[in-house]
Amino acid sequence: MNIDRLLNRFMDYVRCDSESRDELGFCEKLEAELRELGMEVRRDGCGSEFGSNGFNIYARMDGRGDPLLFCAHMDTVAPGKGINPVVEDGVIRSDGSTVLGADDKSGVAAIMEALASLADSGDEHRTVEVLFTISEEVGLLGSKNADYSPILSRSAVVLDSSSVGCIINNAPATVRISARVHGRSAHAAVAPKTGAHALKAACAAIAAMPCGYVGDDTVMNVGTMACPGKTNIVPALAEFDMEIRSFSQEELEARIAQSEAALREACAEFGTTYEFIVDRQTEVLYVDPTSPIVEELRSAFVSLGRTPRVERTYGGSDATWLHKNGIAALNVGTGMQAVHGVSEHIAIADLADTARLVERLMR
Fold first, then answer.
1. Is there a contact between 244 and 252 (Cβ–Cβ < 8 Å)?
2. Sign of the C-alpha dihedral computed for residues 205, 251, 246 and 166 taken in this order
3. Do residues 159 and 332 make contact, with C-beta atoms less than 8 angstroms apart?
4. Can the peptide bond before residue 79 be classed as cis, meaning omega within 30 degrees of 0?
5. Which of 22, 75, 129, 160 is catalytic?
6. Is 281 a residue whose pLDDT tops 90?
7. CA distance linking residue 103 with residue 76, whole number of Å
8. What is the pLDDT of residues 139-174, one digit of tens each?
9. 10 Å Cβ neighbour count for 87?
10. DSSP code for 137
11. Is 136 a catalytic residue?
């Protein structure tokens, strides 16, 4: 592996703008680089389904032995345009005006450098597959809508977490709920009793819903609320959005039902009606910690002098949709820190070890 080339590659990648749904330039760049490595490359057109100008990229390098899929996402959060990376004391940061984009271009760079190193060596290797996705940061949309039919691998390594050595084998099912409360407008001073107060009904419902950790396996949150109107009008519409994540499908269903019951009871009290729209984002991800792919990752980390640990997380990643499509997917850390903010950074040593990890697994 060439560390200078890896560093230059990463810096080049983060300078290429690719905020969610605007990933086209970076997609085209990676597609060309994969072809230059002699890989079989194809794209899918799922971006048009959710407003992205980009496309998922699938590539394969044939070899011997069981195939293994490597996955990372190409999009970044905002502010991610005009990124200017700087290196200070072995750490890469942005100039403070944008995110760095290590989430997830550290994963992309590690995969691409490992592929280049493998191609340079001419050594034998396993069959390697790559899936680079779009619009991960806005709901895992690329992996959710990807075409999995070309993929041979039954195991995958997703590079989209923080700490090097961390192996995430368990993630929750997630639902996002949009609630709309319909009341009846009336003049708040002249005839308030003829109205049905949508805002008070929504607030009563929210007050009855727990937020934060609910037991050991579930977390809930109400994140937005809107109520258009004027202070002298009884509001006829109030809307709020919420999210539930749970490692237990049974618990998840119970919390959805509990939330709707709270809304139903509040609307009955205030004479309003409601809509309760459930968007199922992901299902539970679980890979047995004794499975071969976990053991392979453990060994690879140990060979790098890193202490492996298997953990669960409440965070989401493309691993969930790979798992949904029959692939035992694990999410591993690349060293990126303080992601989704202008303080985002990554140590060059962590980025280098991540690329070494990927190359070991490819071999």
1. yes
2. positive
3. yes
4. yes
5. 75
6. no
7. 7
8. 999 999 999 999 999 999 999 999 999 999 999 999
9. 11
10. G
11. yes
pLDDT tens sequence across 79-121: 999 999 999 999 999 999 999 999 999 999 999 999 999 999 9
Pair type for strands 345-347 and 166-171: unpaired
DSSP state of 337: B
Q: Letter for the amino acid at 83?
A: I
Report the 10 Å Cβ neighbour count for 298.
18
Mean pLDDT of the chain, nearest integer: 97
Q: Which two tokens stand for residue 167?
A: 């192996």
Rounded to whole angstroms, what are the CA distances from 149 to 58, 135, 263? 11, 20, 41
Residue 234 near residue 184 (C-beta atoms within 8 A):
yes
Site of tokens 């039919």? 149
- Distance (Å, whole) CA 174 – CA 245: 4
The pLDDT value recorded for residue 1 is 87
In the structure encoding, which two tokens stand for residue 185, read together?
Answer: 């407008």
Closest CA to 238 of 203, 290, 265: 203
Say whether 82 sits in a helix, a strand or coil: coil
Six-digit token string for 307: 């202490």
75 in active site: yes
Choice among 44, 136, 251, 344 that is catalytic: 136
Instruction: Give the residue from 231, 186, 182 showing the smallest Cα distance to 202.
Output: 182
Q: Which of 213, 285, 218, 290 is nearest to 257 (CA)?
A: 218
For the segment 125-141, the average pLDDT, to the nearest whole number, is: 96
In sequence order, which residues have a C-beta less than 8 Å from that of residue 70 and are 6 or more positions away?
A: 111, 128, 129, 130, 131, 156, 157, 158, 159, 358, 361, 362
Distance (Å, whole) CA 89 – CA 61 = 36
Structure token pair of residue 285: 């991800």
Q: CB of 136 within 8 A of CB of 104? A: yes
Residue 234, class by beta-carbon neighbours within 10 Å (0-12 exposed, 13-18 middle, 19+ buried)?
Answer: buried
Q: Are 223 and 201 in contact (CB under 8 A)?
A: no
Per-residue model confidence as pLDDT tens digits over 206-248: 999 999 999 999 999 999 999 999 999 999 999 999 999 999 9
At 164 the pLDDT is 97
Residue located via tokens 């992309």 = 108
